[in-house]
Specification:
Elements (H helix, E strand, L loop, with lengths): L20 H21 L8 H12 L8 E2 H8 L7 H11 L11 E4 L19 E4 L17 E3 L6 E3 L8 H4 L2 E4 L4 E4 L4 H13 L19 E4 L1 H10 L1 E7 L1 E5 L4 E6 L6 H13 L6 E6 L8 E5 L5 H11 L3 E7 L1 E4 L2 E4 L2 H41 L2 H10 L6 H9 L3 H8 L8 H26 L1 H19 L6 E4 L15 E7 L3 E5 L1 H6 L11 E8 L3 E6 L3 E6 L13 E2 H4 L8 E7 L5 E6 L3 E6 L11 E3 L8 E6 L4 E5 L3 E5 L15 E2 L9 E6 L21 E2 L2 H10 L1
Parallel strand pairs: 8-17
Antiparallel strand pairs: 1-3, 2-3, 4-5, 6-7, 8-9, 9-14, 10-11, 11-13, 12-13, 15-16, 18-19, 18-20, 19-23, 21-22, 21-24, 22-27, 25-26, 25-28, 26-31, 29-30, 29-32, 30-33
Helix pairs in contact: 2-3, 6-15, 10-13, 10-14, 11-12, 12-13, 14-15
Length: 732
């Protein structure tokens, strides 16, 4: 039976267009990058990103500035009209802005229910249908006069409604609450400052442009409290340039009877889980033997990490070590990158305050202009009413004798010489309202309106009066919402310095195999079992005695040296395979260890011998560093292949491919301070020969050692005598 053939599928022919990469980036990538920078990640001068602003404005329009809370799901649904990025993203934004999450010094959302905590990585917040929210009272300062044309409004994404481009904040909100954002090719990381200090500084800068910022803006302040290690120079740099970093550390208390340390405030940059995980990791590695147990005791009363200490442990010394080894002390990197008129700009504190003052002044001008227009319009209507009231009988007669309703307004305009707006206003007044009390009240109101118009016009025409109004608003915000600092300022000279853990000192023997396996064995263990276990085909390439306190220098095939303290490596036995150095030290693929040396004081020299017959004598001090660097590049020259490395002043026998030997005393080689020096020529070689081996000189190696020595370098060496050749063969 013939197999049924399936119908052939027809595929549309793909069209490929050759396009320069620069054009592709310009047309496709750049619009996306600019959208992320301008419309998503970088905050603006009002202190908000678009997602924050859309959410808060929606809540404002829902009437949540007053009254009872509503379900978070209602707010999320309404915000979708302005922010079409999905309900999950909107709710995440709401969580961060909420009082319950505790991420902001002054939360914008008054929340009820489980909103998680900023200090917890794993604590999940409840779904939006279970939580309730309203706007926090401080939001009155965000939306002050927003309905008076204080800021521009633009259509939303589908042009069905309008939203504000900025919020007319009455205080420098951009500095009061922390804000982070990662854009394309740039980022922003703004720390928070105390509201009272920010307002005082803003007032001082407005009144005196040269005001020293640090005198009123003491230091950053965070919702998580903790301690800030004060560094005047670094803070001055941050205030001036908008870039820099400072250190935060946790707060703790000691319960002496229970032998427990309770950490109740941690740096803003870390979490409870990260701290506990690190402590457990260090304890398992044997670096925190003082700790018996660590647990998370956080509850409704607040954060608490409990550490059970072993008997006899000094809690303060232990905390000093924990500050060094864990994120209980962490740094906050500042990057005050803010959008100004659609352009990202990194600014210092003074420049930020000047930009905010200019922005706020524009908001106030627009608000006053709006109020002034309404007052002038009202005055205009009352002026018309005053004219009518002077001859009310004539007005009544005109209305009474008018035949049709649509002719009332024109007749009043003609009869009294008033405009249409005034006539329309008068025609709508009820007859019962034309009593003596109303008349006198309205006429008195005219004078009040004229005085208010004159006052507002005076503010608009005077910069000093305008700035005085802004200063007055700042003082009101400061007095109404100001609160004490949460983050304690601690001066670095008062901090207890870290005391390194004492390192037990004892003799050890170090073995390095050709495959890169290292063993650190005590002499006692070596005496009990000296037979070395190795991989098949592997052999011991190097061995020496040293102490547990020494530092190990591991030279590699990639002209690098790795540094590791011997006490950080586990003691092993001869029967063990040992530590695989490339893996333990994080070497690159294909990188191998060629030699290891131990030093306790970086005294002495290293001699590097190369195939071209050159040798470099470098002091060990060239490899010493003030910082705890784990790797140094350019450990030795890469101009010629390395043959051997020798440590100390012992004489070395150089072996050439021609069979000649030369005994070299390292002291005869000129010392060079640079690690990657090419060295000097010590062995004279013909073009077709090279240095192939180096080994330590022994007194019984040659019958006549003087034959292989030279008074000066470079030298060619000498060929082996018959007897010396026989001894060499026997040794082999």
């Amino acid at each position: 039976m013939a197999k049924k053939q399936s119908p052939k599928k027809e595929y549309a022919q793909s069209i490929y267009i050759d396009q320069p990469i620069t054009q592709t980036l310009e047309q496709n990538y750049m619009p996306y990058a600019m959208s992320v920078i301008i419309s998503r990640a970088i905050p603006e001068i009002d202190g908000f990103k678009p997602s924050h602003r859309k959410l808060l404005y929606t809540m404002y329009k829902m009437g949540l500035l007053t009254g009872a809370r509503t379900k978070s799901a209602n707010v999320v649904g309404q915000t979708m009209k302005l922010n079409p990025h999905g309900d999950a993203a909107i709710y995440d934004t709401m969580v961060r802005l909420s009082r319950g999450y505790d991420a902001l010094l002054f939360p914008y959302v008054d929340s009820k229910g489980n909103f998680g905590k900023v200090f917890s990585r794993d604590m999940a917040w409840a779904a939006s249908r279970y939580t309730e929210v309203k706007l926090d009272p401080i939001c009155r300062e965000l939306f002050s006069d927003i309905d008076k044309n204080a800021v521009d409004f633009v259509p939303n994404y589908d042009s069905t409604m309008k939203e504000p481009t900025l919020l007319p904040t009455t205080f420098p909100n951009v500095l009061v609450n922390a804000n982070q954002g990662i854009a394309v090719g740039m980022a922003s990381n703004i720390c928070s400052f105390n509201l009272k200090e920010v307002c005082d500084t803003a007032i001082a800068v407005i009144e005196d442009g040269e005001h020293p910022i640090a005198s009123t803006l003491l230091a950053p302040d965070f919702s998580q409290g903790g301690q800030l290690l004060y560094n005047g120079e670094e803070l001055a740099k941050i205030y001036e340039t908008g870039r820099g970093s400072f250190r935060l550390r946790a707060k703790y208390r000691v319960l002496p009877k229970e032998n427990i340390i309770e950490i109740y405030e941690i740096p803003y940059t870390t979490t409870v889980e990260a701290v506990i995980d690190k402590i457990i990791e260090l304890s398992k590695a044997g670096k925190l033997r003082e700790i018996a147990d660590v647990r998370d005791e956080t509850d409704l009363s607040g954060l608490c990490i409990a550490i059970d200490c072993k008997r006899g442990v000094d809690p303060d010394r232990l905390m000093a070590r924990l500050f060094k080894l864990t994120t209980l002390e962490d740094s906050f990197s500042c990057n005050f990158n803010i959008l100004i008129n659609g352009t990202p700009k990194v600014m210092g504190i003074r420049e930020i305050l000047n930009e905010w003052t200019a922005f706020r002044a524009d908001c106030v001008r627009r608000c006053i202009t709006y109020d002034l227009g309404n007052l002038q319009e009202k005055l205009h209507l009352l002026e018309g009413l005053r004219i009518i009231l002077l001859d009310i009988d004539k007005a009544v007669s005109i209305i009474k004798n008018t035949q049709e309703d649509n002719e009332v307004v024109p007749n009043l305009m003609i009869g009294f010489g008033i405009d249409e707006a005034q006539a329309e206003y008068i025609a709508e007044i009820r007859l019962r309202a034309l009593n003596r009390e109303l008349v006198l009240k309205r006429l008195a109101e005219v004078e009040e309106l004229r005085a208010e118009i004159e006052r507002l016009s005076g503010i608009l025409s005077s910069e000093s009066k305008l700035t005085a109004l802004i200063v007055q608003q700042l003082k009101e915000v400061r007095d109404r919402y100001g609160a004490p600092r949460r983050t304690e300022i601690v001066y670095e000279d008062t901090v207890l310095p870290d005391q390194p853990e004492p390192v037990e000192d004892y003799p050890v023997v170090v073995f390095l195999s050709r495959e890169g396996y290292l063993k650190k064995i005590t002499p006692q263990s070596l005496r009990m079992a000296s037979e070395q276990r190795l991989k098949e085909g592997d052999e011991i390439a190097q061995s020496f005695e040293t102490t547990n306190r020494a530092e190990l220098l591991v030279f590699t095939s990639e002209h690098q040296v790795y540094k590791v303290r011997l006490h950080e490596l586990e003691d092993t036995k001869a029967s063990a395979m040992g530590l695989y150095l490339p893996s333990r030290l994080g070497m690159a693929e294909g990188e191998t260890a060629v030699a290891v040396f131990a030093t306790a004081d970086y005294e002495g020299h290293l001699c590097f011998f190369f195939q071209n017959g050159k040798a470099a004598r470098v002091p060990l001090s060239a490899y010493a560093t003030k910082t705890n660097r784990k790797k140094l590049t350019g450990a030795y020259s890469d101009k010629s292949p390395l043959v051997a490395i020798a440590c100390g002043e012992q004489e070395q026998v150089l072996i050439s491919s021609s069979g000649k030997r030369l005994i070299v005393n390292p002291a005869m080689i000129a010392e060079k301070q640079t690690r990657d020096t090419q060295g000097v020529q010590v062995l004279t070689l013909s073009p077709r020969h090279r240095l192939v081996g180096v080994e330590p000189y022994r007194p019984d190696m040659f019958e006549n050692p003087a034959r292989y020595r030279s008074k000066s370098l470079p030298a060619a060496g000498a060929g082996l005598t018959e007897k010396d050749r026989g001894e060499v063969q026997m040794e082999l």
